[in-house]
Each structure stands twice: as structure tokens, then as C-alpha cells.
Design brief:
By secondary structure, the protein is an all-alpha fold. The protein has eight helices and no strands. It has one domain: Up-down Bundle (Four Helix Bundle (Hemerythrin (Met), subunit A)). It is elongated, with a radius of gyration of 18 Å.
Length: about 220
């Protein structure tokens, strides 16, 4: 069953949630205690590449097959390596595990819905890969459009609902453990190399579409 944004906003309201930055300052003034900011930074890169890829696909008639499938394959690599293995992996292995501990979220817990949406995104990814394997633009674009819609809504839910709930309901000691686990995970995955690789993809997609840049790609 798909949970609507309205239902998740109601869920958030049950906790009288405030924004992560305000929570962070109110608790300790220690920026390292914020467990959602880096995830939100990753969302910005994901949204940027989604936006630039969408723009490229919208004028796909002006792009020859070789260039179209080359950029599409690089997008697939981004989804697999950064959006899924790195970003979703960090959420599922660390943050979602912390939120699933009994007593952390007592009234409602959106984690199962977020996990379901990760699976929906992976299914759309599979359809994109089939399109590339068949060299079928239309099939790739159907999978991409599905992925694009899923991720736009999913990122909104996490940034505006799930992450603030996590900031408010996870204790300081647990947050320190989460930050440590993030750092270990990022080191093993090669965080800095991944960021530079996919910032470059965002620039290449931007050049392919000749669109003005709108979102900062800097990680804070």
C-alpha cells in the first residue's frame, strides 16, 4: 500500500517536529550531532542529476543514439553506485535501523514505506537497464520517468518528514553512534571520489542540455 504525503505529514505532526537545524542547535550546538544534513546534501546531488537527465531526455530527438545511450549508461551507473548503493545503503544499514529500534518512533513509523519506495525505485532502475540493453529509447524513458517521479516524492518525504522525526526522536548517544557509522561507511565506499565523479556527471549532463545551473553541488 502506498502512503500519501498527507498521511506522512500527519504522522510527523504527531511528534510536534521542528526542523533539523533548529533541533541540532537546541540540543547541543554541535554540528556533528546532525544525522540528516549529509543525507540531504546527497539528495541535492541526486535531484540535480535527475533534473539534468530529464532535460536531456526531453530533447532526445536532437541527440544521436551513441550520445543518448552513453549518457543514459552513466546515469544508470550513478543510480546504482551513488543513489542506491551509497545513499540508500547508508539509510537502510544505519539510519533506518536506528529508527526501527522499539520505542524510538512510538506513534507511527514511516521506515517501512521508505524501504518500499527504495524497492520501487530499484524496479524502475531495472526497466531502464532493459531499455539500454535493447537500445530502446522509449523503454528507457518509461523507466526513467517512473524513477524520476518516485524519487522526487521520496526525497520530499525524507527531507521534510522522516529526517526531522529522526533528529527529534533519536538520543544524543545514539546520534554519536550513527555519525561514527556514517563515517565508517563513507570511508569504505570512497566518499570523496564518488562525489567528484558524479559532480562531473552533473556538469556533463548540463553541457549536453545547455541549461543554466540551478542547484549547488557543494557538499557541506
Amino acid at each position: 500500500m502506498t502512503v500519501t504525503v498527507a498521511a506522512l505529514i500527519w504522522c510527523r505532526s504527531r511528534f510536534n517536529v521542528v526542523e533539523p537545524t533548529s533541533i541540532n542547535l537546541a540540543l547541543s550546538g554541535d554540528i556533528s550531532m546532525n544525522i540528516s544534513q549529509e543525507l540531504m546534501n546527497e539528495h541535492q546531488l541526486i535531484l540535480k542529476i535527475l533534473s539534468n537527465t530529464h532535460a536531456m531526455l526531453s530533447q532526445s530527438g536532437a541527440i544521436d543514439n551513441d550520445k543518448f545511450f552513453l549518457l543514459s549508461q552513466r546515469f544508470i551507473e550513478f543510480v546504482e553506485e551513488f543513489a542506491d548503493d551509497y545513499h540508500h545503503g547508508k539509510e537502510e544499514d544505519i539510519l533506518f535501523e536506528a529508527l526501527s529500534v522499539p520505542g524510538v518512533l512510538t506513534h507511527c513509523n514511516p521506515v517501512n514505506q521508505m524501504m518500499s519506495e527504495h524497492d520501487m525505485a530499484r524496479a524502475a532502475l531495472g526497466r531502464m537497464k532493459e531499455g539500454i540493453d535493447k537500445q530502446a529509447r522509449a523503454e528507457f524513458m518509461r523507466g526513467f520517468n517512473e524513477y524520476y517521479q518516485i524519487m522526487q516524492q521520496h526525497i520530499f518525504k525524507e527531507d521534510k518528514i522522516l529526517y526531522p522525526m529522526a533528529e527529534q526522536n533519536i538520543g544524543d548517544a545514539e546520534k554519536r553512534q550513527i555519525v561514527f557509522a556514517y563515517e565508517k561507511f563513507e570511508s569504505e565506499k570512497g566518499r570523496d571520489l564518488l562525489w567528484e565523479k558524479y559532480r562531473q556527471l552533473a556538469r556533463d549532463l548540463l553541457n549536453a542540455t545547455q541549461l543554466p545551473s540551478e542547484l549547488s553541488l557543494e557538499s557541506h
